[in-house]
Specification:
Elements: E1 5-13, E2 16-26, H1 35-50, H2 52-55, H3 59-73, H4 75-78, H5 82-100, E3 106-110, E4 119-123, E5 128-131, E6 143-145, H6 148-159, H7 172-190, H8 195-202
Parallel strand pairs: 3-5
Antiparallel strand pairs: 1-2, 4-5, 4-6
C-alpha cells in the first residue's frame, strides 16, 4: 500500500529471511483526501528513491521524511491556504534532499563580496547568492532573480535541523519565490525530473 509506514518482523530460515508478521504504524490516510496531497507525496517518494544511496542508513532523514508526509497529510491544520502550505513543504523537502546529497547551498552572504544585503540573485548551478551590486560582473548561465526574503528562506531551511525546519512562517509570495529556487536547484544538481513533479505542476 502506498504511503504506508509499517513494522515488519523477519525470521531467518536456512539463510533466507521471510516476513513473519507486519503491522501498520502510520498510513497517512489524509494524503488521499486531495489529489494535490497525493501528487506531492508521490513526488517526495520519487525523490527519496532517487537519492536512496545517500540516505540508506540516515535515521534522522528517515524521521524527516515521515514528518513531512504527516504534515502534507494534515496541511489544512497548519494553514487554511492549503496550496501555500503544500508549496512550503515542497520547498523544504527539495532543499533538504539537495543538502543530504552533498549540495548544500551557500546563501548566508554574497559569493563575491560577502555582503549580507540585497541578496536578490541565486545561482542554481553553483548554489550561491549574489547581491545586487555584484550581479552585473557575475557570470553564470543559471542565475535567477528573486527576493532577499526568498534567499533567507533557503538559508533557514539549509541551516535548520530536521525538526525545527518546519517552524518558519512566510508570505505566499515569498514561499513561491523560494520554491522557484529550490525546484530549479534540485533539478540542476541532481539532474532528475520526476514525472510526478510534471503532473503536480499541471494541477
Amino acid at each position: 500500500q502506498p504511503f504506508c509506514y509499517s513494522e515488519l518482523v523477519l525470521d531467518n530460515s536456512k539463510g533466507l529471511y521471510y516476513i513473519n508478521s507486519a503491522g501498520v504504524k502510520e498510513n497517512f490516510y489524509n494524503l488521499r483526501t486531495m489529489v494535490e496531497k497525493t501528487s506531492l507525496a508521490t513526488y517526495f517518494t520519487d525523490l527519496v528513491s532517487f537519492i536512496s544511496d545517500e540516505i540508506m542508513f540516515d535515521n534522522e532523514f528517515f524521521s524527516f521524511i515521515l514528518n513531512t508526509l504527516f504534515l502534507v497529510a494534515n496541511a489544512e491544520k497548519k494553514n487554511p491556504d492549503v496550496a501555500t502550505e503544500l508549496l512550503r513543504l515542497k520547498t523544504i523537502f527539495e532543499i533538504k534532499c539537495v543538502c543530504v546529497s552533498g549540495y548544500m547551498p551557500d546563501v548566508s552572504s554574497c559569493i563575491r563580496c560577502n555582503s549580507k544585503k540585497d541578496l536578490i540573485y541565486f545561482d542554481t548551478i553553483n548554489g550561491c547568492a549574489i547581491c545586487k551590486n555584484c550581479f552585473e560582473s557575475y557570470s553564470s548561465a543559471e542565475v535567477i532573480e528573486t527576493t532577499h526574503d526568498a534567499v533567507k528562506i533557503i538559508e533557514y531551511i539549509t541551516c535548520s535541523d530536521s525538526k525545527s525546519v518546519f517552524s518558519f512562517k512566510a508570505s505566499a509570495e515569498n514561499i513561491e519565490n523560494a520554491n522557484i529556487i529550490s525546484e530549479r536547484y534540485l533539478i540542476n544538481k541532481l539532474e532528475y525530473i520526476s514525472s510526478a513533479l510534471e503532473y503536480l505542476k499541471s494541477l
